[in-house]
Amino acid sequence: MSDSEAKQLLQDGDKLYAQGDYYSAIDAYSRALETYQEIGDLNGEAETFSRIAKVYQSFSEWASYDAEKLHFCAPDDPGQQPTDPRQPKSPQPKSRKR
């Protein structure tokens, strides 16, 4: 592979990253990294590692955000336990009149 092919892989990775397809972006960046290593381009390697780090940082931010939604979802009723907002709410039993 050549420098131009590695640059194309970086561009492909950038597009995939922008679309939120992080796993495919990592794959494209990894292939670019292999190419830069084969041709001995240290600057290309550094740039590729930077982009890979950006993807992993996005994973971390997503995981933190998701954990906040899950663990810090305040219930409407103080007597209720926090719930996972991704799950549908179960119907509440109707109170019976005596």
UniProtKB/TrEMBL annotation:
InterPro entries noted in UniProt: TPR-like_helical_dom_sf (IPR011990)
Q: Which stretches of sequence are listed as region Disordered?
A: 72-98
- Identify the domain of life: Bacteria
The record ties this protein, via Gene3D superfamilies, to: Tetratricopeptide repeat domain
Instruction: Please give the name of this protein.
Output: Tetratricopeptide repeat protein
